[in-house]
Amino acid sequence: MAAHPETAVLDLMRQVWRTGSERHDRTGVGTKALFGAMLRFDLSDETVPLLTTKRVYWKSAVKELIWFLSGETNIRSLVAQGVHIWTDWPLDRFRRASGEALDRETFEQRILADDAFAAEWGDLGPVYGKQWRRWLGPDGREHDQMAELVDGLRRNPASRRHIFTGWNVAELAAMALPPCHMTYQYFVDGTRLSGILYQRSCDLGLGFPFNIFEAALLLRMLAQQCDLEPGEIVWMGADVHLYLNHAHLVEAQTAREPRPFPKLILKRRPADLFSYAFEDFAIEGYDPHPAIAAPVAV
C-alpha cells in the first residue's frame, strides 16, 4: 500500500527540526533550515494536497489566490472578506512610521473605513498580483504573465516556456515581502497538465500548507481553462525552514496520522482565468485534525 502523500511532508518537518542548521534571520526569531527539498502530489483523481494533520483554512487560501489573479496589491479587499493573512506587514510598517501601537483589529477597521488611510497603509507594494498581471517592462509596457501563460498552453502545449514568476529584481525593494513562492512552470503530457512550484523560502509550519494548496488549485484552474486534465504538482523548496518558536507546532503535527486528502470540485467553468469567484470552489471530504495556533514572524 502506497504511503499517504502527507507522510512526506511530516518526514520533511522532522528532518528540518532534527538536522537543520540553526540560523539567524531577518525577523529576529531564528529558524532551523535545510537547503533543497522536493515533494510530489498527484492531482489526477481530483484530490488536493490540503493538509489533514492540522486544519488549514482553505477558504482564506482560495480568496488569496483570487486576489493574486486580480492583480491587486492592497489588503483592503482581503480584509473585507475576513482574510487577515497579509495584515501584519503593513501594520508593522504603520507602527514603526507613526509610533502608534494600534492592534490589528483597529488597524483593519481603519483600512475599511478610510479610503485615504487604506491607500497609504494598506498597499503592499508591487507584490505577487502586480508581477503576475502587470509586470513593468523597460519600455514602460505592462506584461500580463497569466494571460500569456494560458494562451501559450492552448496554442503551443509542447513549449518549455510555460513559466511565470514574481521575482522582479527591479521592484523587490518596494515590496512588503519579496515573493517566497516565486516561480511556476507547467508541462503538458498528452492531455495532462503538470506543474512545478519553485519556492525560494518556505516556512514549513505556516506558509507551506497554503502554498501547496494554492499551487494545486491554480493548476486545476489552468487545466480547466485549457481543456486539459490535472496531472501532478511538484514542489521544490530552497531554504526550507521552521521557526524556533514553533516547537509545539512541530511536535503536535508530526505526532498525528494523516487522513485522506479531500477532493476539490470546480462548480463551473468561468469565461477566463480571472473570472473565478469563491463560490466556484467546493472541498469535499475534508476531515482534518484540529488547528495548531502559532505566531507569524514578520
CATH structural class of the largest domain = Alpha Beta
CATH superfamily of the largest domain: Thymidylate synthase/dCMP hydroxymethylase domain
**Count of separate DSSP helical elements:** 10
Oligomer: single chain
CATH-defined fold name of the largest domain: Thymidylate Synthase, Chain A
Summarize the helix and strand pattern as letters.
Answer: HEEHHHHHHEEHEEEHEHEE
Largest sheet: 6 strands, mixed
Give the beta-strand count: 10
The pLDDT mean sits at: 96
Give an overview in words.
Helices cover 36% and strands 22% of the residues. It has a 6-stranded mixed sheet with strand order 1-2-8-7-6-5. A two-stranded antiparallel ribbon has the order 3-4. Strand 6 and strand 7 form a beta hairpin. Helix 2 packs across helix 9 and helix 5 crosses helix 6. The termini are far apart.
Compact overview of the structure:
It contains 10 helices and 10 strands.
Question: What attributes does this structure have?
Answer:
single chain; 298 residues; alpha+beta; Thymidylate Synthase, Chain A; six-stranded mixed β-sheet; two-stranded antiparallel sheet; 10 strands; 36% helix; 22% strand
SSE layout:
Layout: H1 5-19, E1 21-23, E2 31-42, H2 58-70, H3 76-80, H4 88-98, H5 104-113, H6 115-121, H7 128-134, E3 135-136, E4 142-143, H8 145-155, E5 163-165, E6 181-189, E7 192-203, H9 207-225, E8 229-243, H10 247-254, E9 263-266, E10 281-284
Parallel strand pairs: 7-8
Antiparallel strand pairs: 1-2, 2-8, 3-4, 5-6, 6-7, 9-10
Helix pairs in contact: 1-10, 2-7, 2-9, 5-6
